[in-house]
Amino acid sequence: AWRKYSPSGFTTKDQFETEIVRHIETTLARSLFNCDELAAYSGTALAFRDRLIMDWNKTQQRQTFADQKRIYYLSLEFLMGRALDNAMLNVGLKNVAKEGLADLGFRIEDVINQEHDAALGNGGLGRLAACFLDSMASLNYPAWGYGLRYRYGIFKQEIENGYQVEIPDYWLDFNPWEFARHDVTVDVQFYGWVNKYTDDEGKQIVSWQDGEIVTAVAYDVPVPGYGTPTVNNLRLWSSKASSGEFDFSKFNSGEYESAVADQQRAETISAVLYPNDNLERGKELRLKQQYFWCAASLFDIVRRFKKTNRKWSEFPDQVAIQLNDTHPTLAVVELQRILVDKEGLEWQTAWDIVTKTFSYTNHTVLPEALEKWSVPLIQNLLPRHLQIIYEINLSFLQTVERRFPKDRELLGRVSLIEESQPKTVRMAYLAIVGSHKVNGVAELHSDLIKTTIFKDFVRIYGPDKFINVTNGITPRRWLHQANPRLSELIASKLGSYEFLKDLTLLNKLEPFVDDKEFKKEWAEIKYANKVRLAQHILKTTGVSVNPKALFDVQVKRIHEYKRQQLNVFGVIHRYLAIKSLSSEERKKLAPRVTIFGGKAAPGYWMAKTIIHLINKVGEVINNDPDVGDLLKVIFLEDYNVSKAEIIIPASDISEHISTAGTEASGTSNMKFVLNGGLIIGTLDGANIEITREIGEQNVFLFGNLSEDVEDLRHNHFYGDYQVDPELQKVFDLIKSGKFGDEGSFGALIGAITEHGDYYLVSDDFNSYTKTQDLIDETFKNQDEWVTKCITSVARMGFFTSDRCINEYADTIWNIEPLDVAEEK
Ligand code: 26V
């Protein structure tokens, strides 16, 4: 029905062909005679971009006209992946493009594959932000994303001799999906000093003076919703030297080189995405990035609000700002500064507005990931902000003292300033104090933050400020786009594609678990997806794998807490078992392909050692004639969003095996199950809720519970503790030099045998391998296996990011969707 609102633009194949040819010949100035796949991609992208622009403009007009509350999602990461396929599907014209491209001699898949991923994120947190943008647009929420336009996204990973090598990801050569707004700029100040004085009327004036100015330039990216004319905006800021600041006298005095150096220094701010995930390092440039982006975004938001001529007290009725982790916490301080220093509001009046505006999502309990910025660093870079932070702290601590007069230690514990050497600002605490709601991302995680890292704040503010919003994923990208055949099969049974907008409709699939024909088609689709992945594996690694084998997948950032080491030790254990059998006995085994993928932070030595071990183990096992098809070990290079779209639909079992209590939610677990794969997992993060939804009989759970982790860790140091004997055999083989590099692999083992086994690999090993044996047995009965898969998919409705966004809208943002039907 929405299509009647859609603007002029192509709708037929012939019109599409006219558009693509026009773009190739004029926009790109290329001849049709040497039109290669890249040119075909460029022309197609430009044609679809034109279709989005009209709806985009209308959406922005509609939102301005409606003059209602907007949500601003501040995230330092948006892991968008590719845009073309998504745009074609959301506009509903992929088939038109497919046929048009075929006429011109191209296969649509090859054309889609030309696009470079927009990889402006590390992992879960960044991809969640991208799913949220998709849902906010699809549900017609008036929403903007704000982020940084990094020139280099997350590095490209290559594996050389089994080691990870990082290659810069220069991705902006040709990007048709962004629009530079050279007229939308904000000057951002750094360094300088604070001048406090009393003016002629006796008013106290605070002014932040001098220092250096860097200009933020807006780049806008359209975010199309699915099956709606809403196209929201993602605004990314790029840094450049301010024209006002640029010191032209340097040219004249012959200091050309130093003038250029100034320019480059400004551009450095938005140059590169920090590749750490769950590890904070306190680098000055990162703090500069954070403030640059917060200041530009806040200025933009305030500018838009001021155009409405409302009273400041109405700001929180017009504006909701969500802090994606603590990275944008300086926005809290910046809004307070604008209201007090620039707009002249009373401190308390301003602070009420600030806290009603902001809310904060926590994504991790790992202590090494919690942001703490050194006070001297902030003092130097943002002198006025440091004063404001101290004032916020003072008034906060006074309130706490009044409420808990006898508890002196409490003040020290909750202070925004940690009395360390040097002193640091605890950003999570600042985010809590500056927000009206704080949420975790899965039930267990939300419970854990309330009882551990934020316990004191629950006492101070009461329990209602801390809530749970379990993560979700967009079924458009992660089912319809990544697995079109499965989506089509589901639609054929449910009678429409309506489930892509209301994922709970999947429950209507459940009656079909006994439909023989349906099950056969289901299995065929999984098999075809596995064949496709097998081809990718052959092409990229040279290893040939049997698509009939069980595909066992672990793809995610490499981190000790995610326990890829447990997986690879399990693989070696399996190898030892195979070697110990006679060739007759081996015939009874279930063949398996274990697939790993994921990047290690460049400075995370232990994670890189895990990658090395996986590759070396693969080399030995894949070339052992005793093993053959029974076991293959694959490390897939450069795991990213577009590779995930190939890997996830091809999985039989995927691994979500973090030490209980460490993975806040996990979101790939949801993607795998939605694509008809089963999971092996610990009782951690969203695995718990997935189990509750799809039923315990459909999940392979193992390992210790989060409530027992503390005691187990204690026991490693003070109890009588012995490494699991089967795991010891694995260690012995590694130490024998079978996989080379005994030295660094020794350190991996030492972390378990000598240094307390913080991630409880040994404690969970037996349970893990037993559960893997159960998986082998279950997989032998394909009929039973497919039943489990279908039942699970039918029960996954809860995990759509649409549900998640509606929860944020109702319980935190207090905003309503914009009725698109009202527009004529
Ligand atoms: C933290 C840091 C620390 C400073 C250096 C750069 C950097 C970059 C990213 C992060 C975020 C770490 C937190 C994170 O990604 N958490 C993940 O969030 C997912 C979405 O909620 C969730 O599913 C994962 O379980 C959680 O690990």
Q: Tell me, what's the shape?
A: globular
Largest sheet: 9 strands, mixed
The residue-averaged pLDDT reads 96
Q: Which homologous superfamily in CATH is the superfamily of the domain at 475-799? A: Glycogen Phosphorylase B
State the secondary-structure class.
alpha/beta
Helical content, roughly?
40-55%
Total helical elements: 33
List the bound ligands: ligand 26V
Low-confidence stretches: 1-8
Through-space gap between termini? 13 Å
- The CATH top-level class label of the domain at 475-799: Alpha Beta
Radius of gyration: 28 Å
Kindly state the number of beta strands: 24
* Strand arrangement across the biggest beta sheet: 7-10-11-4-1-12-13-17-18
Q: Percent of residues in beta strands?
A: 15-25%
State the CATH topology of the domain at 475-799. Answer: Rossmann fold
CATH architecture grouping of the domain at 475-799: 3-Layer(aba) Sandwich
